[in-house]
Amino acid sequence: MRLKERHQHILSTTIRHYVATAEPVSSKTLVNEYDLTVSSATVRNAMGFLEKAGLLYQPHTSAGRIPSDWGYRTYVDQIMSLDQTMRRKLDHLLSNAIKEEVGSLEALLYGVAQLLATLSGYIALITLPQQDTSTLRHLQLFPVDSQHIMLIIITDTYQTQSGLINPPPRIAEKLASGEGVEEELELLSNFLNRKLEGQPLSELANLNVEDLEQEWKQDRDFLGQICQKLTQQSQNRPSSPILVRGISEVLRQPEFSQLQQVQTLLHLLEAEQDQLCSLIFNLVEPNDDQKKVRVRIGSENPLEPMQICSLISADYYQGKLLAGSVGLIGPTRMLYENAIALVEVAADTLSEALTKVEGGEL
């Protein structure tokens, strides 16, 4: 629902006070500390309306009120404005960090994660560049037995992968008879390297084999099989590891005072990164209607350990290819205008840096 201006102002001040103090907020507190220019009774009535609407609630009888997940959601969607001062500060710090880490992608990602954690006071997450952005650097074909040839590939990030494929009939016959085929496979490897080097692995399955088989017409199906295998290797890679920074800082927050809550969150961060990756990494290409920064608040998170937290994330790119995501995890009692600005600037900065790497500028 769309709140009236007065209700927006009361909800905003309640959230700001609760974020700052972690204490339930009374109408008397708002009147005394925020110069609302209205009576305590008016504020009390407004808070009662917000409570009936599900935006505030009392944690126990006779206590003040605190924001609900829906209250924070309404604040984020309708009321807040981004912290432009924080945006400028982070932009300056990240620009300096990039200059210091020229040529080292891993050091750059670690530096950005640490800056996000330090400036926000929350847990910073950055997924390493996803495998579907990897391109082919080199491949090699080796005979294994009469039924299999091994394909070994090296990506542009120097990751090595291998897989078995079935040889075409004429090569299978040679393998079965004991004829040497190493030289022929070497020639085919060289041919494929010339044609495919620099191509994204994820796109090779859609490659038009007809464009490749002029010199190897009789092995057209085999060439298609190799391209399919290269794409399969890309898809079968495990989720990218996640850089995590700032755990010690956020665990000082009162929301994490219970040992069980701490243990389940730490287990998720350390041992269940595949589940976490599916939350922070946007597997669907964004469209014009989708917001650049995604905000999941409390119960909006499908993973139970995350339901006392908010997760803010945005994607970063290498050129036009989706590379990874940047995120912050903190209590739902979060400075959303600050955190959203941090994540947005960090994602933009990483995209700019990786695009320069792709263009040979960094």
Automatic annotation (TrEMBL):
Stored NCBIfam families: hrcA
Gene Ontology BP term (one): negative regulation of DNA-templated transcription
Protein name, UniProt field: Heat-inducible transcription repressor HrcA
Function: Negative regulator of class I heat shock genes (grpE-dnaK-dnaJ and groELS operons). Prevents heat-shock induction of these operons.
Protein origin, superkingdom: Bacteria
HAMAP family: HrcA
Molecular function GO labels: DNA binding
Annotated keywords: Repressor, Stress response, Transcription, Transcription regulation
UniProt source species: Euhalothece natronophila Z-M001
Record domain Heat-inducible transcription repressor HrcA C-terminal: where: 107-340
Family: Belongs to the HrcA family.
A Pfam family of this chain: HrcA
InterPro entries: GAF-like_dom_sf, HrcA, HrcA_C, WH-like_DNA-bd_sf, WH_DNA-bd_sf, WHTH_transcript_rep_HrcA_IDD
Signal peptide: none
